[in-house]
Amino acid sequence: MRAALRPPRYNTLAVAGNRIHFGTSGWRAIIADEFTFDNVRRAAAAIADHVGSRSKSPTLIVGHDTRFFSEEFARAAAAVLRAHGVRVLLCGEPAPTPAIAHEILRRKTDGAINFTASHNPAEYHGLKFSGPDGAPARPEVTRDIEERFAGLAARGQRAEMAGKNGFEQTDPREPYLARLAELVDFGAMRKAGLRVVCDLLHGAGAGYLERALADHGVPVAALRANRDVLYDGDGPDVAESNLAPLREALGASATAGARIGLATDGDADRFGILDADGSFVQPNHILALLFDYLVETRGWRLGAARSVATTHLLDAVANLHGLPCQETPVGFKYVGELIQKDQITLGGEESAGLSIRGHVPEKDGILAGLLVAEMVARRGSTLAEQLRTLFRRVGAEFWPLRINLALSEDLKARLAERLQRDYTAWQGRRVARTVRTDGLKLVFTDGSWILARLSGTEPLARLYVETNSPEASSRLGTEAQRWVLQ
């Protein structure tokens, strides 16, 4: 594959000897290097052993995205599961992660295995395991699966298989779309004459996001809805740098008058949003805008939850409405638990993950995009205008910034040591509060903050900063980089 010629940028799963490791969002590795059929079969056997230890007759959904060999990996895993006494419900077509989560709850299964590497480059594949609650597996579950995999690998045991055909099928599309119709006000979009452009990035969101709009009479143009296992030579990432086709389409004559651009990543659990003029709107800002909008329009008197790396604008909006805002470690499984317990209106992560009350405890990029479209239609103003209004209402501006740093092993070790230190001051700033929920977060007396942590999904150090202006955030980000690299 053309994309495989580039140096690896991600390494969510490392097979170190006889072990695998699940990161914050599953197991990912390069196809034919670490992500092999042998390892997939062992992982499936380990998962079968895990669910078998909890249920006498377990049922698992097996799904996949649009990546190279997705169907083949899914069928190989399904054959192993069946040999281990697990009833398999196989998705016959690529399915988004949130649709599979919804299907878990609808069918009351013991969970699902979804073959996806989400937004990673084309040379990667991955596996997500979700439990019976539809949420990403918690650490104690993935540790058990890792240990079972290690036992199989140490014995050199090949996973038993029971044929690759004749599986019972399940199609999550129609039930999931029906649920979206209950959560989203499509009538408001029609009434406002909203036009939408969608960029599916050749991922599993194709046939879902644009279909949801079209079925309810909302004019929509769809881009990159076909399967391309090379993803235009890159990956299905909803980062600003990857949405140039969507930006161009918003200004093209064929889609003139479109007031919003929506994008989903490879498995449609993340969202990307462009305003009417083609400008990218930060996921952090989208989370805050939607939280404010949902409190106003749904009447839900529940707070919000955000990961430790996510904007404090959510806290300011919660305070505006007299509601709480909870802080969680990085990883949507922690936010999803609060969704499941019906404790929050909205939960989100700065990496473009979101779900809401009454929905699945899993990131849903399709729902996020549809809610943004509804918000634009009902408020009748651009997202830039809405953000300026929100800043005025809370009495401050919030401009988060994330920086990814590839570090040598020596620098990683030095950073890990620094993250354990206590700080009363940092680079001349007084520290008001230290948070060790995930990595090291220093909140300064003026309300600005930094967070440094080693990534759980990529071989990187992640730096997050937030101040009251883009310029100040850029300066603070530069200081944070120097501190890490010194």
Task: Characterise this structure.
36% of the residues lie in helices and 21% in strands. It folds into three domains: 2-174, Alpha-D-Glucose-1,6-Bisphosphate, subunit A, domain 3 (Alpha-D-Glucose-1,6-Bisphosphate, Chain A, domain 3, 3-Layer(aba) Sandwich), CATH 3.40.120; 192-394, Alpha-D-Glucose-1,6-Bisphosphate, Chain A, domain 3, CATH 3.40.120; 399-485, Alpha-D-phosphohexomutase, C-terminal domain (TATA-Binding Protein), CATH 3.30.310. It has 486 residues and is of the alpha/beta class.
Structural features:
Alpha-D-Glucose-1,6-Bisphosphate, Chain A, domain 3, alpha/beta, 36% helix, 15 helices, 21% strand, disordered N terminus, 6-stranded antiparallel sheet, 486 residues
Domain count: the total is 3
Question: For the residues shown, what is the average pLDDT?
Answer: 92
Number of strands: 21
Outline, from the CA principal axes?
globular
The CATH class of the largest domain, by name, is Alpha Beta
Enumerate how many helices there are, as a single number: 15
Give the N-terminus to C-terminus distance in angstroms: 38 Å
Low-confidence regions: 1-17
Give me the secondary-structure topology:
Layout: E1 27-30, H1 37-52, E2 59-64, H2 70-83, E3 87-91, H3 97-107, E4 112-115, E5 124-130, H4 139-154, E6 168-170, H5 173-183, H6 186-192, E7 196-199, H7 209-215, E8 220-223, H8 244-251, E9 260-264, E10 271-274, E11 280-281, H9 283-298, E12 303-307, H10 313-320, E13 325-328, H11 332-340, E14 344-349, E15 353-356, H12 365-379, H13 383-394, E16 399-405, H14 409-418, E17 425-426, E18 429-435, E19 440-444, E20 449-454, E21 461-467, H15 470-485
Parallel strand pairs: 2-3, 2-4, 3-6, 7-8, 7-9, 12-13, 12-14
Antiparallel strand pairs: 1-5, 4-5, 9-10, 10-11, 14-15, 16-21, 17-18, 18-19, 19-20, 20-21
